[in-house]
Write a structure and sequence with these properties.
This protein is of the alpha/beta class. Helices cover 33% and strands 27% of the residues. It has one domain (2-198): Rossmann fold (3-Layer(aba) Sandwich). The structure holds S-adenosylmethionine. S-adenosylmethionine binds at residues 4, 8, 19-20, 45-48, 66-69, 72, 93-95, 110-112, 115. S-adenosylmethionine binds next to α1 and β2.
């Protein structure tokens, strides 16, 4: 985990953050429009500089948003304040700590689950997500896709098998669809859009 934190701290320090498009991801918007996601308490894990958390807050969710990189979270706080959005930002690692405000009705992560390189770490992350949710609550995760054959930089890429193996024991998989991150990278990275309901 310390290694992941160091890696992301370095990226934010260098300004090497191609995921940071400055807008909410269209996949999040589409899923909220297409599924009956009830309940108001939302958790974003790994909120970066906050655009998705701000969007969720404006959509009427009570938003808690976590980060492990202070610099990113401070940027998120500033953006939310400028946008007049009320989000509760916390410098917390969900794998190691309990997040205040749980249980949540809806959990969102874009590019956090896919940061874990081993099955054991992915399992721990999924267990932590489930521990913070109501039964029947939805988790939407946007995950780099191993079928993306790009050369050079891009998000970590996972196979459907790697995802299902760790998610299905604790979640009912509602949707696992190949798509694209809403990104300014050309071409945009392929992703998996995972929507799962906590058992
Ligand atoms: C690829 S970035 C995406 C940031 C943001 N979700 C976005 O789409 O702009 C992944 C983020 O997850 C954060 N992160 C990684 N592991 C985390 C953890 N265990 N808890 C909270 N945040 C984490 C990183 O610091 C980083 O900001």
């Amino acid at each position: 985990m310390d290694e992941i934190k160091r890696r992301f701290e370095q990226r934010y320090l260098e300004g090497n953050t191609p995921w940071d498009s400055g807008r909410p991801d269209g996949n999040l918007i589409e899923i909220l429009e297409s599924y009956d996601i009830t309940g108001k308490r939302a958790l974003e894990i790994g909120c970066g500089t906050g655009d998705n958390a701000i969007f969720l807050s404006k959509r009427g969710f009570d938003v808690t948003a976590t980060e492990i990189v202070e610099m990113a979270m401070e940027a998120a706080r500033a953006k939310a304040s400028e946008a007049g959005a009320r989000c509760c930002f916390m410098l917390e690692n969900i794998v190691e700590n309990s997040i205040d405000g749980a249980p949540f009705d809806f959990v969102f992560d874009r590019g956090c689950f896919h940061s874990f390189d081993t099955q054991v770490d992915r399992e721990k992350f999924v267990q932590s997500v489930a521990r913070h949710m109501v039964a029947g609550g939805y988790w939407l995760s946007l995950i780099g896709n191993a079928d993306d054959k790009r050369q050079g930089p891009g998000p970590p890429r996972r196979t459907a098998t790697e995802i299902v193996t760790v998610v299905e024991p604790l979640f009912e998989i509602v949707l696992l669809k190949a798509g694209y991150f809403d990104s300014d990278m050309k071409p945009p990275p392929k992703n998996w859009i995972l929507l799962a309901r906590c058992r």
